[in-house]
Amino acid sequence: MATDTLFPSRHFSVDTDVISGIGALSELAASVRALGATRVAVVADRGVAAAGLLDRMLTADVPVFWTGLADVNPNVAACDSAVAAAQEAECDAVIGVGGGSALGLAKALAIMLTNPGSILDYEGTGRVKMPGAPLIAIPTTAGSGSEVSNALVLHEPGRLREVVVRGRGCEPNVAILDGSSLRELPRAPMLHAALDALTHACEALWTQNRTVMSDALAEKAARSIIDVLPAALDRRDDNSLQQLMEASTAANLACGNTGLGLVHALSSAPTTPLPHGYQNGALLLAVAEFNWDAIDAGHHSLLARIPALFAAVGWPGHFGHDDLDTDRIEAMIAATVDHPFRTNNFRPSNDEQLRGILAAAHTSWKEIGR
């Protein structure tokens, strides 16, 4: 029988139980019990712990036997240290609390509690043999979407790209989305995280693997972020914060199934010392303009709202004059060679076109799709 090559098979999956709403953190202890956990290791963002949020979350009925603090962009050594400490404490489950860095380290720890060797042995896609230890993810930013992702990222000095481990068994068992955890997040980290989430949603709309399901999630997520981000940043009302948190998760459910595109391919170079969300927000409009004619026209009106959003929240929408020198630009381009996100982008690109995108990402945008 002939195969219709116009509609190649694609996969869409959601493997994490999501609990959401203001006050959802009250279900943490019940979730721990439901997973059968008796000795929990906690990996928390250092800033979250310093702000006292961790103490408010971890009530006496959560059996915590070890707590480790994660810095931004943890490396393999941080994973090794956490594994040794959690094994010594005989932990059988993990709770991750924080942004993408803390949740990524928590995923690595959960994997290594049930799999031998080093986390580097599992670099790539589908190489983790045994599901990780039970894992509950509690995001305290609305950006990475790591709480529903089956991928983790570690940053190893001297490497051209990050260490990425991806595949079934890497995702958290439970994600708890409580917008109240965003109330005290400083403005800049909240903005950069939201730029990352918005980029996840947009990139899901211009990849080779998009589907009707991913489009629905991505478009709704992007629309919600555009609608509520100004209020979330300035008013911090629970309704806006909860919508922003849920939109971030929805964006990752979309891009976690479609893969990402040129923005994330370019921002994958670990030698660029800028926050991940900052880089993505600076690249987003230039890549959207590059992809414009390849994007489904039904999404144009939504994407065209982004410059006005950036103006409303005081984000320039481009890199600063001193952000990238020639060496860093070339390192970003080099990091995209054979990168799956580059080939997944709906419009193909050569290196000279990438240089053009990076040049455009240093200019102001009042509109896109001209």
Structure description:
There is one protein chain. The protein starts with 16 loop residues before the first strand and ends in a 10-residue tail after the last helix. It has 15 helices and 9 strands. By secondary structure, the protein is an alpha/beta fold. The protein folds into 2 domains: 165 residues, 3-Layer(aba) Sandwich (Rossmann fold); 175 residues, Up-down Bundle (Dehydroquinate synthase-like, alpha domain), CATH 1.20.1090.10. The N terminus is likely disordered. A 6-stranded parallel sheet has the order 1-9-6-4-2-3, with helices on both faces. It has a 3-stranded mixed sheet with strand order 5-8-7. It is globular and about 60 Å long. The longest helix is centred in the middle third of the chain and has 23 residues.
